[in-house]
Amino acid sequence: MISAPPRAVFGHLYVTGAEADPRAKYLFVLTIVMVLALIAKNLVRGRIGRAWMAIRDQDIAAEIIGIDPLRTKLLAFAVSSFYCGTRARCGRSSIPARSRAGAFEIDTSFQILFMIIIGGLGSILGSFLGAAFIVLLPIFLDLAPRLVGSRLPVNLVTNIESMVFGALIVFFLIVEPRGLARLWQIGKEKLRLWPFPH
Q1: DSSP letter assigned to residue 31
Q2: Contact 118/177 with Cβ under 8 angstroms?
Q3: Contact 5, 16 (CB under 8 A)
């Protein structure tokens, strides 16, 4: 197995390799995620993000108003490739070598797709909400029967999890395509206007 070479930040704090503390790895990856999320938010709010949204919504109309579709689509592909490569590199350095073989199977691709759909298409907050939901739902489905004094077999919990994911994907694609991020936004607006709903 190939493992990541030891890398240190600030001189002595190892973030990759066998010498790295798991907390240091976590904080290092969390820092990278926060920086990349901030960059993505600024990209979406700027000229480039408006061009991406125009191409996404109506590419012919965007071309008429002067946006080059080829350049804009290539830029979107390049930025998304950079983000995917950074995710793969962070995952490679943070996953232990012994469990790395099964870490990037087709189920991982489906989970990432479910995160995006359930969280909200085209939303940075939605990607975080979808990731939290996908990670926390199996934990909840595992702990909920224990709270009421019952134990479900593991295969039944896995099947319930698949059914819940499928139902939520159909629900969000039909009813609310912008996912949890839009529901969060609606909830904030209702709370802001709560005493006077007009």
Answers
A1: H
A2: no
A3: yes
| DSSP one-letter code for 50 | H
Pair 118, 172: CB distance under 8 Å: yes
Higher pLDDT residue, 110 or 76? Answer: 76
Per the DSSP assignment, residues forming a β-bridge with 13 are 9
Higher model confidence: residue 19 or residue 56?
Answer: 56
Pair 192, 132: CB distance under 8 Å: no
Q: Are 50 and 38 in contact (CB under 8 A)?
A: no
Share of the chain above pLDDT 70, in %: 90
Q: Angle at Cα 110 formed by Cα 107 and Cα 114, nearest 5°?
A: 135
pLDDT value at 100 more than 60 = no
CB 40 within 8 A of CB 46: no
Q: What is the SS3 string spanning 77-108? A: HHHHHHHHHHHHHHHHHHCCHHHCCCCCCHHH
Q: Which residue has the tokens 């077999």?
A: 153
For residue 8, which phi and psi values (nearest 5 degrees)? -120, 140
Distance CA 145, CA 36 (A): 38
Q: How many residues does the chain have?
A: 198
Q: Based on DSSP, count helices (H) and strands (E) in the chain, helices before strands.
A: 8, 2
Question: pLDDT (tens digit, 9 = 90+) per residue, 30-72?
Answer: 899 999 999 999 999 999 999 999 998 998 999 999 999 999 9
Q: What is the pLDDT of residue 104?
A: 65
